[in-house]
């Protein structure tokens, strides 16, 4: 048709229906589940507006609505025939026949299905996203004084439920609309699952047994963080109030059905819903949560008599001030398996965050280290490297990434070393052209591409990177004749709109870039770019072009990270702390093949005991003092010298993430990075060793572990025959009974 595929791809909008790692992980998991032939569904909300588009104006982040459906979405199919009602508000009536939730407001959940194809196996799974619709008699059936027009306009109130994604990453905002969203997706999904269960041959095996006896053998539900935690009381409500199961039977089935994945240990991210809000919105669910809690606490009191402190710690309800429901506690009590997302994180979950629960049921707690799909994060985004690897070890690695270890044979192969370096250089040139087009800055493609892309958050320490940039800048100015390894530092990511400090960090990076990029003494030695509107489609461009991946969170704060894995697979070297999956990356590749620096978890704990005093580091380290003084004095903000007062004040007086404590080790480690970069061959050898060790970080491996250890289903590598080939009669379409 005379159309250019790449040009066409550029036009399509990202489906930005998540915030950061959590939503992207779910997408990788869907790809892997289809590729492994699992009968699995992904459920979520079809937001009309996804994560905001980020514009940078005068160095500040400005948000714009992400109207991603403006031109329609060709991949989705509305399924009005499966529309389901979801209830809110109302009251509970108790009678001899049990509890009834009545006088509720109804919102309809309309499903949209998106196909999820497995890799070359003729399997296509479904992602089902729910959209909120007002019923046609909305506001018209009740004592309406005849304002028909207003009644129709008020339909928006119901339909607002699926209007917009809350843009917070690692932060809990206890808003009523957010709780509505969480219950909406849960209530619609559970009805859908039960409808499918009842319609299947499994539901009717034996009329003597309770119909739901086989439910946990046929259905596994994985809770992606606590956001869908209301599924636990909702399933109990369906079993007890509607299906009339006895409580103990219902609870046994519920626990065996659910498993919970924890994604963060930051206290401000844990969901703690006010009891009075839940009572207003979901009165029956609050009663059920109270009953779950009562039985849970009775059990603990029997095991630990007179230990009231333990009861307080382990309760689902937090007293003091406004009473709140601790959703993580609800998930742990209501699930048969709980997992963290990297070894170090799962250890922290067991020994610190939920230690009382782990002491009670140690066998419930597991680790499932995150992974990424090599289809998107190698084949699709880096065809040059994928092809080069295939030439050496064949194409099977795409489905079995552990085969990358075969690349170890070629680590001393001069031709292969040159080819790997050549692919990287081509990717850098291509990205440099993109940057020049978008940002009107001249990029030196032979400079080291030092990349820090992720959500902007204090714990991820973009500020520490910023201090290193200022330090490099000062060194160049102090001694312009001295050899300096040229760098292009690229920082990108969105800040939650209400997160003041994160927005100040973006402004600071842009202010520093303004000075550095326009100083003639610096020239092309150092360039700083803030990447606007970081998103999946932009990640696919920048990651293959990266030399140095920045993974520098304070040890013990990043649960896993997945960007770290994408960079490793695409031939970047990592500078990072011993945090999240970095620990396992170093374990796989050898610590000498990563640039590991800074405090370990034990050191952070020790420093907390002693008391962190930022002033000490400022007084002891002249280069740190110089950088901070420049920020404080207005060197980077001459029109408003006090602009960064809040940032500096935070760094000295309430920096929970201890930027100054790791600054010296970070700068020294960066010197080692520059030194190695001068030796292209030695650098590329480390790159090859990293790629060869990246196999563990396939989401295929992660999903196999979930399937075997939690869902109890077997992945199948059976290639289903294509639809145009006739099948043998009676051939079972789903080799796996359980639908996850």
UniProtKB/TrEMBL annotation:
It catalyses: [(1->4)-alpha-D-glucosyl](n) + phosphate = [(1->4)-alpha-D-glucosyl](n-1) + alpha-D-glucose 1-phosphate. GO terms for molecular function: glycogen phosphorylase activity; pyridoxal phosphate binding. GO terms for cellular component: cytoplasm. Its EC number is 2.4.1.1. SUPFAM superfamilies: UDP-Glycosyltransferase/glycogen phosphorylase (SSF53756). Residues 714-740 are annotated as: Disordered. Belongs to the glycogen phosphorylase family. This is Alpha-1,4 glucan phosphorylase. It comes from Drymodes brunneopygia. The gene is Pygl.
């Amino acid at each position: 048709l005379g159309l250019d595929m790449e040009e066409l791809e550029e036009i399509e909008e990202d489906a930005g229906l998540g915030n950061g790692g959590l939503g992207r992980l779910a997408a990788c998991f869907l790809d892997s589940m289809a590729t492994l032939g699992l009968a699995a569904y992904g459920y979520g909300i079809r937001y009309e507006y996804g994560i905001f588009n980020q514009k940078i104006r005068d160095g500040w982040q400005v948000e714009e609505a992400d109207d991603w459906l403006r031109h329609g979405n060709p991949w989705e199919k509305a399924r009005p025939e499966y529309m389901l009602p979801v209830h809110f508000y109302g009251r509970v009536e108790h009678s001899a026949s049990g509890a009834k939730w009545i006088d509720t407001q109804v919102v309809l959940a309309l499903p949209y299905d998106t196909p999820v194809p497995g890799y070359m196996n003729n399997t296509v799974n479904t992602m089902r996203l729910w959209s909120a619709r007002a019923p046609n008699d909305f506001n018209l059936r009740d004592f309406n004084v005849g304002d028909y027009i207003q009644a129709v306009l008020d339909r928006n109130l119901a339909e607002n439920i699926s209007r917009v994604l809350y843009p917070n990453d690692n932060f809990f905002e206890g808003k009523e609309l957010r709780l509505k969203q969480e219950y909406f997706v849960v209530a619609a999904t559970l009805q859908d699952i039960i409808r499918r269960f009842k319609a299947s041959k499994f539901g009717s095996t034996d009329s003597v047994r309770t119909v739901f006896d086989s439910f946990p053998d046929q259905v596994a539900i994985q809770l992606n963080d606590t956001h869908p935690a209301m599924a636990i009381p909702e399933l109990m409500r369906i079993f007890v109030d509607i299906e009339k199961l006895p409580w103990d039977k219902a609870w046994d089935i519920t626990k065996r059905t659910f498993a919970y994945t924890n994604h963060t240990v930051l206290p401000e991210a844990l969901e703690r819903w006010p009891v009075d809000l839940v009572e207003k919105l979901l009165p029956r669910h609050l009663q059920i949560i109270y009953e779950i809690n009562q039985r849970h606490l009775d059990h603990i009191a029997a095991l630990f008599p007179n230990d009231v402190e333990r009861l307080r710690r382990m309760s689902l309800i937090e007293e003091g001030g406004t009473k709140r429901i601790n959703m993580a506690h609800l998930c742990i009590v209501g699930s048969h398996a709980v997992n963290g997302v990297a070894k170090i994180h799962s250890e922290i979950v067991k020994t610190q965050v939920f230690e009382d629960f782990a002491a009670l049921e140690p066998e419930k707690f597991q680790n499932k280290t995150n992974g990424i799909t090599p289809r998107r994060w190698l084949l699709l985004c880096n065809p040059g490297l994928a092809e080069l690897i295939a030439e050496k070890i064949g194409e099977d690695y795409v489905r079995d990434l552990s085969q990358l270890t075969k690349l170890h044979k070629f680590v001393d192969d001069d031709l292969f070393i040159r080819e790997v370096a050549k692919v990287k250089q081509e990717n850098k040139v291509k990205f440099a052209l993109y940057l020049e087009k978008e940002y009107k800055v001249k990029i030196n493609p032979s400079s080291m591409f030092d990349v820090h892309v992720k959500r902007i958050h204090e714990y991820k320490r973009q500020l520490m990177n910023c201090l290193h940039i200022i330090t490099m800048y000062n060194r160049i100015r102090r001694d312009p004749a001295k050899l300096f390894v040229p760098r292009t530092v690229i920082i990108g990511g969105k800040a939650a709109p209400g997160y003041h400090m994160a927005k100040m960090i973006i402004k600071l990076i842009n202010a520093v870039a303004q000075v550095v990029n326009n100083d003639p003494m610096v020239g092309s030695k150092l360039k700083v770019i803030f990447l606007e509107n970081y998103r999946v489609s932009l990640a696919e461009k920048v990651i293959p072009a990266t030399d140095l991946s920045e993974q520098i969170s304070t040890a013990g704060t990043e649960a896993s990270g997945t960007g770290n894995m994408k960079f490793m697979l695409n031939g970047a070297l990592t500078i990072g702390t011993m945090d999240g999956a970095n620990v396992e990356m170093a374990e796989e590749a050898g610590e000498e093949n990563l640039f590991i620096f800074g405090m370990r978890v034990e050191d952070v704990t020790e420093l907390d005991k002693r008391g962190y005093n930022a002033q000490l580091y400022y007084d002891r380290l002249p280069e740190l003092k110089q950088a901070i003084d420049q920020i404080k004095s207005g060197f980077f903000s001459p029109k408003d010298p006090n602009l960064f007062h809040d940032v500096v004040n935070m760094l000295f007086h309430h920096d929970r993430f201890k930027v100054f404590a790791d600054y010296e080790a970070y700068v020294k480690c960066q010197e080692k990075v520059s030194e190695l970069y001068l030796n292209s061959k030695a650098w590329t050898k480390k790159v090859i060793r990293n790629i060869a060790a990246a196999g563990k970080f396939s989401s295929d491996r992660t999903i196999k572990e979930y399937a075997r250890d939690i869902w109890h289903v077997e992945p199948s590598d059976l290639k289903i025959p294509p639809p145009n080939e006739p099948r043998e009669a009676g051939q079972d379409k789903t080799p796996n009974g359980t639908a996850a």
